[in-house]
Amino acid sequence: MKYDVTVIGSGPGGYVAAIRAAQLGFKTAIIEKYSTLGGTCLNVGCIPSKALLDSSEHYHNAAHSFEAHGIGVGSLKLDMKQMIKRKSDVVTQTCDGVSYLMKKNNIDVHVGVGSIKDKNTVTVAAADGKATELVTDKIIIATGSKPITPAAFNYDKKRVITSTEALNIDKLPKRMVVVGGGVIGLELGSVFARLGTEVEVVEFQDKLLGGMDKDLAKEMQRSLKKIGIKFHLKHKVTDVKASKTSVNVSVQKRDSEDTFNIKADYCLIAIGRRPYTEGLGLENVGIALDDRGRIETNHHLETNVSGIFAIGDVIKGAMLAHKAEDEGVYVAEYIAGQKPHIDYNLIPGVVYTWPEVSAVGKTEEELKAAGIEYKVGKFPFKALGRARASMDTAGFVKVLADKNTDELLGVHMIGARVADVIMEAVALMEFRGSAEDMARICHPHPTYTEAVKEAALAAFENRPMHI
Asked: What angle, rounded to 10 degrees, do the helices at 46-64 and 183-195 form?
């Protein structure tokens, strides 16, 4: 079988790369080792976690907010099995959608483990042992990442789990320990906390959401404490022991000998992810890896082997589905001789807790470290009519602009629907807009976006209207 482009991995980066390559006229193949397409994101990541986040928020509102709206629900009942079934149905529908897109674009799907034999040959090993060789002009590696599971944690997929297993718990745990205060840990921790589980988060750093603006991290911690989550910052897990029905987690204070134990139903490991390159045959062609096991690429996302590219979680940069998608499009268009563009500074980050968190550009800490003079504008959602109407008053919008030119340098939000609102900032910053530009755009009333306008006014001339 002869192809112009062969993509290894069918996650958001891989399948989008395949679609764009096919749109550009390339005969395209995609290889996926599992029976369903979509990779981690669609099967055991972004999509199922958002389904559970939404379900848990409905339950939490029914238990704690409906009465204030004048809505009585009587005896509230949690049906975890139905919640998990709905999540699985969403996953199935989404993965089936990717299969449809492959057929629509005449992309050949090969199920099996793909490995690179040489720079123009990829071997596909099926589950039944049958091997097929694909001859190809170009190869795009999009194999994604796997959770990091240190040996000391004794990961058993039963009581000591990662996000993959957490998405299928169909009986509400009484207690859960989450190791890691990053995006995955906080999202899944909040799911179970909203449903009634006692959740404790152990984080080695002195703040949550490493890499995000410090003000966002503080507000997030304050918000999650209100739903009962306990935090142990500047602590580390030294050992995890599991039985058939529980786990015992040993915790030590950072820079101290102080220790304590937490007994729980589950220990969720959420300390990050690692590039997945096992079985790819990179050594057959001499593809270089960096000191963190990521595939090294140049600014065109091409490896040191001409004609072989890599995208997404398997290379450096944020492990985000939308970053992988943009890279997939970039590589396909570059192969076609076009001149695509990605501004990595303007790839937004989002946390889908409630309130949501989103950010783009530089944090205040990064600007200080770089010696860049800047000005700050902030506006709290509690001062916003729309937020009061919906009882979603937690959070704020923070705008950072250059002190001399007024150019937007970073925008950081925590509040209702900010996962969607952040795109206003991304669009303006893509065209190097200023805080004044953001402030003078007419925003509809009443909406959450008015908080962006007010924060921009505060940054531009320190003159917000409604506070």
From this structure: 40
